[in-house]
């Protein structure tokens, strides 16, 4: 395997624990409103609207909108689903939507990324907007060299343009880039676009009963335990 020049990373689930952080803010705000709900169920329901919202754009039924906009629309729908529409005003909703900017990195993330950065260009190739990724990186001390992905490409993964335009921004051929993700479908799309691939299992991303992406489902170039193990694979 030729050594890559750059490493691209999925962020939600791969680098950060979105579920616990979103649940914590939902739980806090709901308690302050005097409501009682299953806050993990709320976080899961909000996240479940993520792919369908992006699919409207991928399918050409809607023009591109940043993920911050889609998250807010999905929040409104989730509040309706849980009977909380009248309890959260516009300011509450704006505050709750910022949960996606304050996600906690997995324990190995910052140290692993720092080691990898010593040898490679590292960047998110996420469906998050440039604004969201920038604020999330500041919050979690994620040491990116630059912000790539959907906000730059104006296309949502697994659209190949999300990967290809990110490679082009660094003036690299796809074969010179490795995509790192905890999701087999993300890696399959990256491979189809010509990138190298690395699978990192995050077996509790969706909680203790997770049933998907528990293991590598193809012959990815690298399968690592976590980001620090990936650094060992790549001699960092």
From TrEMBL:
Cited SUPFAM superfamilies: HAD-like
Taxonomic superkingdom: Bacteria
Reactions that this protein is recorded to catalyse: an (S)-2-haloacid + H2O = a (2R)-2-hydroxycarboxylate + a halide anion + H(+)
Pfam families: Hydrolase
Keywords annotated in UniProt: Hydrolase
Gene Ontology molecular function, alphabetical: (S)-2-haloacid dehalogenase activity
E.C. code: 3.8.1.2
Gene3D superfamilies with a match to the protein in the record: HAD superfamily/HAD-like (3.40.50.1000), Putative phosphatase, domain 2 (1.10.150.240)
Keyword S-adenosyl-L-methionine: no
InterPro entries: 2-HAD (IPR006328), HAD-like_sf (IPR036412), HAD-SF_hydro_IA (IPR006439), HAD_sf (IPR023214), PGP-like_dom2 (IPR023198), S-2-haloacid_dehalogenase (IPR051540)
Similarity comment: Belongs to the HAD-like hydrolase superfamily. S-2-haloalkanoic acid dehalogenase family.
NCBIfam families documented for this protein: HAD-SF-IA-v2, HAD_type_II
Chain's role: Catalyzes the hydrolytic dehalogenation of small (S)-2-haloalkanoic acids to yield the corresponding (R)-2-hydroxyalkanoic acids.
Protein name per the record: (S)-2-haloacid dehalogenase
